[in-house]
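Example S7 (structure tokens).
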């Protein structure tokens, strides 16, 4: 399908801008640098006071929030009436898709109509902006809304497939329908691509491409780790991140490394519990910073010697890329797409999820041999520069937009 590439591309996520999804904001910025006119949309926007920097606040102001408009009955009715009058055929097609590809049960049917209403609100906004295509992050309900809005407007949509949440309860989320109806899918790893292939017939496999999430390596110092024994964790304080395991490992290490310190950056539902856990273990050298901005994260990385992320479920964590870009050796879990980023023994150490003995030993090794840590860190930095630079990844995504706009389907998995 030939399209006018001067028309905008719309981006849709559940919440934008979001502290834990700064990689999406970086991608948007890098695509704009490539000459793409990107408009941002979200099901909802975070509270402005939760934002951590001027870039986030600017994106916040420029983002169209579906729920803000849908909550106003008059606005919602106006959007629905406008779309019905102008795109009745598309609405009927989207209605059929919503009902056919809904989650099971009465609840699934009710939600199908909610998603369709949200899609009409989004469709009116996208029509007014004259967008040529829609790109979505994650295969969650926002992707359902985007799929329906694209059907209403008869425009193509694509989405970035992450994991692991994208692969949970795929019958209810209708992942197969989202994959089948998408013009193409940007998979963040070979692992994610393989999971997607299991939900598609072979004739659809060619549209599954690899586009990594990325960072800006130049933002992070390439100086060797400092001489201290500072250990750093950055992430949501949630069960999936394995922070209690890290606290236990740190407790075990203190006898041999009394000068070691642990900084935990982030916030979440487990923060109070984790702080109480640290007090109970008398871990006086554990510091909780709460959520901080990206520049402050870079400063914490510059002060750290080792980065640890003992998660139980991840995609390919951007925070690992940030740590490696800063030249820090990493200790993390051997799960999902992480081995595509971290090579065990070359840029860091991979341990089995939940293995407290292996986690403790890996950190112990790096604390005892800072020269090894510095060497691993430089290998990791080179890996990120080569394969996870957001500017390079945005060029690849831009090339996919351009190719599909021209009606061609690239046969390369990774352009």
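Recovered sequence:
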């Amino acid at each position: 399908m030939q399209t006018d590439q001067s028309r905008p591309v719309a981006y849709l996520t559940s919440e934008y801008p979001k502290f834990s999804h700064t990689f999406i904001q970086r991608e948007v910025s890098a695509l704009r640098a490539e000459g793409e006119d990107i408009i941002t949309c979200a099901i909802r926007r975070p509270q402005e006071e939760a934002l951590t920097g001027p870039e986030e606040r600017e994106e916040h102001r420029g983002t169209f929030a579906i729920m803000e408009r849908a909550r106003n009955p008059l606005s919602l009715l106006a959007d629905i009436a406008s779309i019905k009058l102008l795109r009745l055929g598309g609405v009927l097609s989207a209605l059929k898709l919503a009902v056919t590809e809904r989650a099971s049960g009465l609840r699934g049917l009710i939600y199908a109509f909610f998603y369709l209403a949200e899609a009409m609100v989004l469709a009116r906004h996208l029509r007014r902006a004259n967008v040529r295509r829609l790109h979505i992050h994650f295969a969650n309900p926002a992707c359902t809304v985007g799929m329906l809005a694209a059907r209403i407007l008869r425009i193509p949509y694509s989405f970035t497939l992450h994991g692991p949440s994208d692969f949970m309860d795929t019958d209810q989320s209708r992942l197969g329908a989202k994959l089948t109806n998408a013009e193409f899918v940007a998979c963040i790893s070979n692992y994610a691509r393989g999971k997607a292939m299991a939900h598609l017939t072979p004739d659809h496999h060619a549209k599954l491409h690899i586009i990594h999430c990325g960072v800006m390596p130049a933002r992070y110092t390439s100086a060797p780790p400092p001489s201290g024994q500072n250990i750093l964790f950055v992430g949501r304080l949630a069960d999936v991140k394995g922070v209690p395991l890290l606290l236990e490992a740190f407790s075990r290490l203190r006898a041999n490394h009394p000068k070691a310190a642990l900084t935990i950056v982030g916030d979440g539902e487990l923060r109070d519990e984790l702080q109480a856990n640290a007090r109970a273990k008398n871990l006086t050298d554990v510091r909780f910073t709460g959520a901080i901005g990206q520049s402050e994260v870079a400063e914490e990385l510059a002060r750290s010697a080792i980065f640890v992320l003992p998660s139980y479920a991840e995609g390919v964590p951007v925070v690992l890329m940030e740590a490696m870009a800063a030249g820090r050796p990493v200790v993390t879990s051997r799960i999902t797409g992480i081995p595509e980023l971290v090579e065990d023994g070359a840029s860091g150490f991979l341990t089995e999820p939940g293995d407290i003995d292996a986690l403790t030993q890996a950190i112990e090794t790096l604390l005892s041999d800072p020269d090894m840590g510095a060497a691993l860190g430089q290998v990791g930095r080179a890996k990120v520069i080569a394969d996870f630079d957001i500017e390079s990844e945005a060029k690849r995504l831009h090339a996919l937009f351009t190719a599909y706009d021209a009606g061609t389907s690239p046969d390369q998995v990774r352009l």
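Notes on this example. The first strand starts at residue 9 and ends at 15.
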